[in-house]
Each structure stands twice: as structure tokens, then as C-alpha cells.
Amino acid sequence: MRADWSDERLMLAYRAGDADAFTTLYQRYRASLYRYLARQCGNAAIAEELFQDIWIKVVNARADYEPLARFSTWIFRIARHRLIDHYRRHAHHLPAQSAPNDADDDADGVDEMIALLPAPGHETPHALHERQTTAQRICLALAALPPVQREVFLLAEEGGMTLEEIAVATDTGRETAKSRLRYALTKLRQSLQDLL
After folding, report:
1. pLDDT digits (tens, 9 = 90+) for 50-103
2. Domains in the chain, please, with CATH?
3. Considering only CA atoms, which of 155, 152, 135 is closest in space to residue 187?
4. Could you give the angle at which helices 163-170 and 71-89 cross, rounded to 10 degrees?
């Protein structure tokens, strides 16, 4: 059963021609990869474009794929490089802290994401509103992080990556990745202390 296979085994099966293995990988990574992109660039349309490009790169790279690292490290490294290419091409730097009105513009996208989350039928509108408000606060706190800290935090949380894997994906040392993650967590705790 493919659901029990490791990501690396699935990618090797896909390399050998098993299209269902790709479908399983896509299902495993589509949400976390999209969230990583959307939170890094802050624009749903750009995130969708980059998301499609990354999966095309995975398809095109299948013949040369070798499991030298975890699949998650490999795909998030592709994602990071695609983000960098996008900003270079558009004469931007990696995203800086979002301005408050940028976050307001993204509120509709957050609302849509929250609407897609499954919720128990017994939740009241008040509880749903509180959850929405909390999600918006978290998104604003993430957007306020310096780009390198936000990137490391999202790779850890969305990508499920270890410090070693983050270091490989971001071309930094383990201690640098550790420091960035620690600073990100500290700033998030400070921003969200009333929710904790």
C-alpha cells in the first residue's frame, strides 16, 4: 500500500514510471508546500504560480532523482530556490516585513483558508469568529518576522524539517538555522503572548 511508503520510495517508484506514486506525494505535500509559499511571498496568485512551477520541476527532475536527502528537504529546497528566482526576476529582494495594509489585503485569503478547514458541527459562530481572529493574528505575527527567520520557521513547521535539513535547504550552517529558529520563536511568543 503506497500510503505506507516513505516519500523517497514513492519518488523512486515515480521515477520508474508509477504515476500513482506521484499522486501520493502530491497529496502529502500540496498543503504544506502551498502554505510555505503563500506565507513567504504574501500573495496568493504568485504562490499558486510558484506552486505549479515547483511541481513541474519535480516532474522534470524525476529521471535524475536520487534519495541523497529526505524528499521534504529536496522539495522545499526547490521551493526556496524558485522563490529566490522569482524575486530576482522581478527586481525584489526576499520579502521584507509586510506593511499593515498588505496584511489587510490578505485577510480575504486567510478567510478562505479558514473556511476550508474542517470544523466540528457543534461550534458556534462565536467560536468560529475567535478562531478566525486567532488565525489572522498568527498570520500577521508571521509576516512581521524578518524573512530569514520566517523562512526557517516555516520550513520547520510546514516542512517538518530538522535543523540539519533546514541548514541544507537554506545553504547555511546548522547553528545559523538554529539561531534563526530560536529568534523566530521568541518573536512569535512575544507577539502572541496573550493567546498562549
Report:
1. 999 999 999 999 999 998 889 999 999 999 999 988 888 875 444 444 433 444
2. 2-97+145-191 (1.10.1740.10)
3. 152
4. 30
Per-residue cell: 194? 496573550
State pLDDT tens for residues 143-155. Answer: 899 999 999 999 9
Pair 182, 140: CB distance under 8 Å = no
Q: How many residues does this entry show for the chain?
A: 196
What secondary structure, in 3-state letters, does 30-54 show?
HHHHHHHHHHHHCCHHHHHHHHHHH
- Residue 192: phi and psi, rounded to 5, are -115, 20
Residue-wise over 146-179: b if at least 16 C-beta within 10 A, else e?
Answer: eebbbbbbbbbbbbebbbebbbbbbebeeebbbe
